[in-house]
Every structure is written in C-alpha cells, then in structure tokens.
What does this fold into?
Amino acid sequence: MPESNQDELIEIFKNALVDILESKEHLTPTLNDIYDMFAKIRIKFPRNDKRSATITKHLKEHANKQIILDDLILHILQDFKNDILSCKKR
It folds into this structure.
C-alpha cells in the first residue's frame, strides 16, 4: 500500500510501465517503453534529444542493477517534473 503521494504516483507509472513490458515481452524497459508509459497515462510528453539522453542514462543504471524500477521512475519524474506538469493531458 502506498505510504505517500509520491509512492502512489510511482505506483501509477510503474503499473503502466509493467503493462507495457508484459505486452511487448520485454524484461527491461526501453526508451520507447518509457515514452509509451507517458502515453498510456495520457500525458503528452514529446520526444526530444535532451529528454531521450537523460532517460537513456537512467535506463542504463537500471539495466546495470544500480537502481530498481521504482527508482528509475522516480528519477525520470524528478528530472522532468516541470515538463510533466506543463504537458497537457491527451
């Protein structure tokens, strides 16, 4: 059970990402999976090189087992908090 609003938010994104991973039969998330996660939650989060580079850095940390899936999502949300808040819902 989520203990805070942050935990609840991470859980929402995590559930969306896990659904995507299962449907695509991926064991670890890809850059496309992350963008698909935002789309699944109906947040318009356009691609750009800076975002993709930052997300790729976090994906590598996750792939190297330096961070768990919850932390991957948390890092992405923290890095793009202002961008996400300014994005319009689809």
